[in-house]
Amino acid sequence: MIRWLAFLGLLSAMPALAAGIDVGGPFQLVDQDGHAVSDRTYRGRPLLMYFGYTSCPDVCPVDVAKIVQVSRSVRDTTGIAVTAVFVTVDPARDNAARMKAYVRAFGPDVVGLTGSEAQIKQVTDAYHVYFNKVPANGSYLMDHSTVLYLVGADGTLLDHYGRKLPEQDVAARVAATLEARR
Fold this sequence. Notes:
There is one protein chain. The model is unreliable at 1-16 (pLDDT under 50). Strand 8 and strand 9 form a beta hairpin. This protein has a seven-stranded mixed β-sheet. The protein has a two-stranded antiparallel ribbon with strand order 6-7. The protein has helices at residues 2-18, 59-78, 96-104, 117-126, 167-180; strands at residues 28-31, 36-38, 47-52, 83-88, 111-114, 131-136, 139-144, 148-151, 157-161. By secondary structure, it is of the alpha+beta class.
């Protein structure tokens, strides 16, 4: 059921992306080290942004590992360093310390971002990210869309990728897009 809802969330985001509606924009969050950051903090380097949560039982760990591999592949083939950014949709549980432990499991170059509920709502609205709290076994899971966003060094959205797209194809598209912008 949760995967079906996530698929519906992805579909709800796709018309905005396909119709040329503005996606992305300014944000103010907190990184895994507890520092206040904004979209301007990351200017000058491209980002691969993904929205999920640290308690995700299956999708997020697989997707973050894929993003790390894509970032490495792009760096190795083009020399362009792409920063992998994981933004939580569950700020009630995902504080800076929890984000730090989570992203460090994927390597030293992954950024984890959290913030207040209002800050998370602002950035998820800007990126047209679907998420919803779903009760489960006395706790909850977070149903969420699974779109990966390529954000350029100037902070603009360059491309997006669905999770079914193979890692090699994502890496090739990211590399081609960034190479074309050199």
